[in-house]
Amino acid sequence: MDIHRCRFVDYTPHIITALAFSHTSDSTKNAPAGLRLAVGRSNGDIEIWNPRFNWTHELTLPGARGRAVEGLVWSHTDGENPRLFSIGGSTYITEWDLKTGRPKANLNCNAGVIWCIDGNSSGSRLAVGCDDGSIVIINLAGGPGVMEFEFICQKQDLRVLGVRWYDDKTIIGGCADGKVRCWSLEEENRGRITGSMKVDRLKTESTLVWSIVCLPSKNQFVTGDSTGAVKFWDAKTHTLVQSFTTHEADVLCLSKDSTGNKIFSAGIDRRIHNYSYLESKNKKGSRWIHNDSRLLHLNDVRALEIFECKAYNFLVSGGVERSLIVQSVDKFQHGPYKKILMDQQISNIATCPDSELVALFQDQTVKVWRIGDEKHKLVAKITLSEDDNVTSISIAEYSEDVTVLVVSTINTVKTFSLTRTENKLQVRKYRDESFDSVVSGAKKVHIFDDCKLLIQTPEDELFIFQIGDTSIELIDEIETLDSEGSELKGGFDHFNAIRTFAFTNDCSRVAIARFNNTVELLSTNGSEEPRKLTTLSNLVHLMQFTDTESLVILSDDNKILELNTSLKQKTNLLTQWSQNNSEYLPNAFLKMDQKAQGMFVQGKKVWIYGSQWLSFFDLSLNLQVSKQKSKKRARDGLSIKENDVENLEEAYFEKDLATALIRREDVEYPGKGEMAFWMTQKYRPILKVDPWGEQGIVVIEREVFALPATAAFELPLMKI
């Protein structure tokens, strides 16, 4: 087998600027089924992560040029799905639609550029701090998509850098003049400043109060500022209680646990510090102590978030290093941690083996390289005139000298012909008004079967077009099943949306998997009625068809299933291989900390890869197993397992499927020289693996040391 290694693709993830959990911590309850983490990046993208089973990246809400996400907040009221809001270098607040990936509503706050945002505990109001020194109150009582301007609080001289709701009657803000101010929301003092506190001043410039966290149970709040100080204040008397100068530079973020007895701080010096409340029988003897610090980041820490439930407690951090780091709140000092690397479990690379081309998209740019026998060369670079970030690309050979490239954003779909010359590709845009009138944006595009184009619109409609020499003709709209009404408690707007899809080899059928765990089988030529294939217990993470038109599924808990898709096999959904092997997968595969990010089928082999590993399963051979059934790795406390989640419906795993999985009949094991399973960690970090030629594969890597990760604040590097 030929393995082509490519290390020239210059993909660089963007800085993490904001983090927000969808639910508030409650250490007395199990984790809610709808728990998600929103991750904002400097290019305007917002990623939605599910903390179950080693953290699954579910979707990305695409940003746009010059629209960095500077703040995120969820509003969660009983009986409603959580609502996500963002701010970013403008006077607007944006509410997002997780189903379409588009903004649901925008509201101008009628003040200066917004620097910070926070929501109250009941989810009925937002407060935003602006650069003109004002705090604006926004009412959310109208429901999803409705934001109403309520009033502007009393202005002061300089911009508000951090804002927090102390309770429904008080807001606390950190300002650029070295002061912390309290605004009252009570009727008699509505919007007025009722308290002002000064922090330590720098000799050369004003102190900036970047971050605040409130502790109502202790009548205290905490601030972090540009001197590196973490200060604890009395909320009633507005006096300083304690001060720590543990940081050597600006404290950019603060977070607290569910009880308010632990505080975490981080900033430019890269260290995360932990403070604990030491309670005494004599109230005057109670005080805060500095416990310890940990150095896990290589650069500035821009955001900290904590979520706690009955069985789990996560401290998530991110910043200029671009990676998410997850660790335990209880085991902060010496416990394990998980670094979610630059891969986002969704590919921004497309390959075309016939034309020997590799394409990468990032922001508004698409780059195309040609892989030669001895070297590679950048042969085309396309930059879109629109501000929207690219959501998907697909590339395929049209003729011996012409390759077709399709590029989509959330609002447009553009098609280009790439004509081969000696040193580069000549790029020409297809101009078809009828095509533009039908399609207005896409979540995903895919070219298949002699330049047919499948488009998944933001509304999850599926269209098929035929790409010609100069035009793009609509062939059909694929009919899907009506999945409305099948929703878990605590779900989201995107619950019934399409998660992923896969084509059969002859492209006559397409399977789609939804976020509600259902798998549907659709016809691309009208030969079959759409039908539901199955409903799984867990989310479909990846899936691909084999040469025999069976469907291989990798669920988010790393279970591999091979399903029969023929109408003749309705009574036996699992193939013989799946019945014999799905419950006996190797521990080497099950215990991988890094999530799978891609899968493809080549002959009888199913290739699966993550950022630091590459493996295959041969579906013609049975797996060797020991006498005892293989067990998954014990939980490390850094991601949520199935039995620790509230409101999951067991009926989501069909009974015939569950029964079939526990069978293991007398099987034939591989002979000498045959491998039913193979895994290597030789290639890393992997961005993409695809078939290349008849029997070869291409492995596209991005070296970590090639990323711009120079620390702004130098500290001796310690291995932990």
TrEMBL record:
GO terms for biological process: maturation of SSU-rRNA from tricistronic rRNA transcript (SSU-rRNA, 5.8S rRNA, LSU-rRNA). SMART domains: WD40 (SM00320). It holds the Pfam family WD40. One of its GO terms (cellular component) is small-subunit processome. WD repeats lie at residues 202-243. The keyword Mitochondrion does not apply. Keywords: WD repeat. GO terms for molecular function: RNA binding. This is U3 small nucleolar RNA-associated protein 4. It comes from Australozyma saopauloensis. The lineage of its organism: Eukaryota, Fungi, Dikarya, Ascomycota, Saccharomycotina.
